[in-house]
Amino acid sequence: MSIQQAATHIQNAKHLVILTGAGVSKESGVPTFRDAMDGLWAKYNPEELATPTAFAKNPKLVWDWYSYRRDLVSRTKPNAGHIALAQLEKTHPDLWLITQNVDDLHEQAGSTRLIRLHGNLAETICYNQCRGGRVPIAPSDFVWDADRTTPPRCPHCHAYLRPNVVWFHEMLPTQALNLAQTVCKNSDVALVIGTSGLVSPASELPYWAKQNGATIIEINPEYSMITRYADIVLNGASGAILPALLEAMA
Ligand code: OAD
Question: Between the N and C ends of the chain, which has fewer C-beta atoms within 10 Å?
Fold first, then answer.
């Protein structure tokens, strides 16, 4: 299937929904979850660090890993794929962009119709959620132990602070998930980019769209769990394919 066919579907879409995963940020220099980690972190598996159990067992290790990731992400910029997706809002002002990513590269590129499923790496919250929910705490309010060897503490209840990301075995934010399910069920074209489709419930969203009769267009250089039921598969990097799609729509 060609870029031109995909472009025609997108052009004619009345309810366009986009789902992105780590692959869309790869060309900005953010490693995906399936990439081997570098340097100090090479011996760890992200799936073993991104859990409440890992934090309970070794809060310093998990806090340091996220600090490393936050620092890495803060040095990246949106790539041509993020920018093309932001431009799609001009022709499709009602689209919804659902992301599993915890970086802010979609916002930096100018996307506004964003649903975040897995939180925001730039934010920090109380481990005990003492204010009732994921209420971000500003760095100026962090309370540090004298030796600064452990994560900072909550200014309200003194529990450890943690990143505002959704860990494995945690619930997704209800409002975001409900909205994502609704827009997928109502969509007629779903563009699924750079996700392995291995992590539920996000991985089920394109299937909701398919059930509704939506055309599923996938962009991914590799086979994924979405590929087997996608109507159009564009094999390649999103930083190259998305601008080409936009050009084909012009
Ligand atoms: P994964 O790391 O599982 O998959 C990344 C996907 O991006 C793979 O299918 C790659 O083939 C594809 N890819 C790589 N380079 C690409 C490129 N240049 N352009 C397009 N695609 C490319 O990432 P996710 O599917 O996002 O969850 O992972 C889902 C969730 O699992 C994450 O949000 C995270 C994770 O563990 C939590 O932290 C809860």
Answer: C
**Alpha-carbon distance 195 to 153, whole Å?**
34
In the DSSP assignment, the letter for residue 203 is G
* Ligand 1 proximity of 128 Cβ (cutoff 6 Å): no
Which residue's CA is minimally distant from atom 18 of ligand 1?
Answer: 237
Q: What is the pLDDT of residues 233-245, one digit of tens each?
A: 999 999 999 999 9
Ligand 1 neighbour 166 (Cβ under 6 A): yes
Q: CATH says 31-75+121-165 is which class?
A: alpha beta
- C-alpha 155 to ligand 1 mean position (Å): 35
CATH 3.30.1600.10 residue spans of the chain: 31-75+121-165
Output the CA torsion 8→11→14→15 (10° steps): 90
Is the whole model's pTM more than 0.85, yes or no? Answer: yes
Residues of the chain with CATH 3.40.50.1220: 1-28+79-118+172-250
